[in-house]
Amino acid sequence: NAINAVYATLTPEEIAFEQERQALLYHVPELRPAIGVELERGIDMIASLLAERTGRSVDDFEIRVAAGALAGAGVAVSLEMSGGTVSKAGIALTGVGAANIKATGAESVLMGANLNQGTIDQAAREAANSCEPKSDHRGSAEYKREIVRVFTVRALSQAAGLRAA
Question: If 0-12 CB within 10 Å is exposed, 13-18 middle and 19+ buried, where does residue 23 land?
Fold first, then answer.
């Protein structure tokens, strides 16, 4: 699956760090709220996108409900930079196919490239094209692909220190 494929690109030290971090999140009672905080951040990001797209308030009840329903769709990005270029890239998609998806086309766009807006946009398009969403009560397949594109742009732009388009 995509998460395993992304983890396969990590060094043994990076894997050990992630395993320790996950163990702490789940086994230290004071850290458990971080899981909810991250879910809430995802819902806030989706609500912001929906509000912007519909011209409604981010606090509108229907916008918040829709964002909560869509929070299952997600993009995980892992980058390693060397001398201004991407030396390692991992992009995993969830909630937009029958199983998790490793966005290898998007990763290929990033490998050896400078992380600029053009590269980010191209990688985001590749990520969106690699997903296999189904239309349902939460939205059309095209809309879900757009969510993947936007989330990928935002994650990569944040990693590059750029303002997301």
Answer: exposed
Report whether 156 contacts 114 (CB < 8 A). no
Count CB atoms within 10 A of the CB of residue 110.
26
For residue 142, pLDDT over 90 is answered with no
Cβ–Cβ under 8 Å, residues 146 and 106: no
Task: Locate 127 and state its tokens.
Answer: 């990520």
61, 69 contact by CB (below 8 A): no
Q: Is the pLDDT of residue 64 over 80?
A: no
- In the chain, the percentage of residues whose pLDDT exceeds 70 is 80
Residue 55's region, left for phi above 0, alpha for psi from -120 to 50, else beta, is left
Tokens representing residue 139 in the block: 């939205």
